[in-house]
Amino acid sequence: MQINGRKHHKVGFGFPLNHYEGITVAIYIEEALKTLSTIFQGFSIDLQELYNKFCYKESPFIMRAKDSIEHIFSELYNVPNEIRTNYFKIKILELLLFLSVVDVKVKGEERPYFTKKQVGTVKNIMKYMTEHIDKNFTLEDLSSKFEIPLTSMKNYFKGVYGTSIYSYMRSYRMQVAALMLRETNENITVIAGKVGYENSSKFASAFKKIMNSLPSEYRRRFI
Fold first, then answer.
1. Domain around 131
2. Is there a single domain that holds both residue 103 and residue 53?
């Protein structure tokens, strides 16, 4: 679980792969205080105090997933539509109560913090690769082009995106390929070439690892 005050973030949320598995809870303190005071009189959690507790650093607060956290979030995935809104409200209150008793010194983890320039460079690398998805660049090529030491580039990228450059691009390519399989009638070999695979067998193997089915099987599900 990550908590941050979004001090240095743009408005809104962005997911680079256009694919996200997880739950994001955004709390706008002023609006939330009004709602809580209206619906739950006597609710003892001070949101501003929670903000000060978890967001006093430049870097986000990180906490490993434990049973206590998984219990709160896992139950949000399979909720009947007719009770979803009210159920979500209850679970968020449960989350706030849980956070109110967390000892940040015991539970928190230190993670590397990256400067705006470092993050910007990594985002430019990601943008360049995804705009040339049919090309395969070596790490040395990228390091040279963006004038950044190879080791630093790998560390910054993993720190920002949570995975290696290779794993990120493989996942991105498969998401793009899946979109083309769903929405076009193009030959699978052609699609493979468009996402950087000259060998259709290697493409099929990579696709199955990410999407849990062969490209042909995946396409049939959407016909």
1. 116-220
2. yes
